[in-house]
Amino acid sequence: MIKNKRSKPINKRLAEIEKARYDRYAQQHFICDELMKHFIDIEVTRNAMRRGGVWHAETVFPEKSDLFEIEKVFVNDETEPLFEMESDVTPDRWVVRFHYCPAVACWQKLGVSEENIRKYCDIGMDGDRGIFSHYPDLEMELTKKIAWGDDYCEVIVTRKKNN
């Protein structure tokens, strides 16, 4: 069962930002729902999400794979309180936890089944996978997921060892 509760209220500015994000998450649901109605596997949306992540890495994220600099873009004044994030970064390893997921909250409000929330979540994470694929010396692992019933999502990014 999905547990996704905000632990503290957000201010008006962040609530407006969250509403804008809800629009994006709702669009993902409506696109996937239409595909499923036409018996088209929603897996076809994965590449689009990944491409979006790569584009995001190329246009917003630092050129070099400096985890401290990447963290500054990823965990900022908007994302940290919206996702209730905690972050621990070293030069070779970054662990970020999301204790609340606005995407899951949006899909729950829309009445999306837990099975489809899990699908949407994993497809949505292809955006993050795309971001980190931009850095050939980094690898990303998603070890915990709110959509699967975990208390938080956990992303671990590590620097690949030279072989």
Structure commentary:
The protein is α+β, with helices and mostly antiparallel strands and 163 residues long. It has one domain: 2-Layer Sandwich (Muramoyl-pentapeptide Carboxypeptidase, domain 2), CATH 3.30.1380. It is 50% helix and 15% strand. The protein has helices at 12-37, 46-59, 67-74, 79-83, 102-109, 114-133; strands at 85-89, 93-98, 138-144, 153-159. A four-stranded antiparallel beta sheet has the order 1-2-4-3. A hairpin with an 8-residue loop joins strand 3 and strand 4. Helix 1 packs across helix 5 (102-109). The longest helix has 26 residues, at 12-37. The radius of gyration is 16 Å and the shape is globular. The N and C termini lie far apart (41 Å). The model has no long low-confidence stretch (mean pLDDT 95).
Write the layout of secondary structure elements.
Layout: H1 12-37, H2 46-59, H3 67-74, H4 79-83, E1 85-89, E2 93-98, H5 102-109, H6 114-133, E3 138-144, E4 153-159
Antiparallel strand pairs: 1-2, 2-4, 3-4
**The top level CATH class name:** Alpha Beta
Give the SSE string: HHHHEEHHEE
Please name the CATH architecture. Answer: 2-Layer Sandwich
| Molecular shape | globular
The total number of structural domains is: 1
Low-confidence parts, pLDDT < 50 over ≥5 residues?
none
CATH topology: Muramoyl-pentapeptide Carboxypeptidase, domain 2
* Number of distinct helices: 6
Helix content: 40-55%
Distance between the termini: 41 Å
Strand proportion, as a percent range, falls in 15-25%
- Compute the average pLDDT: 95
E-strand count: 4
Largest sheet: 4 strands, antiparallel
Any idea what the radius of gyration is? Answer: 16 Å
Strand order of the largest sheet: 1-2-4-3
CATH superfamily: Trafficking protein particle complex subunit 3
Q: Which structural category do the helix and sheet elements fall into?
A: alpha+beta
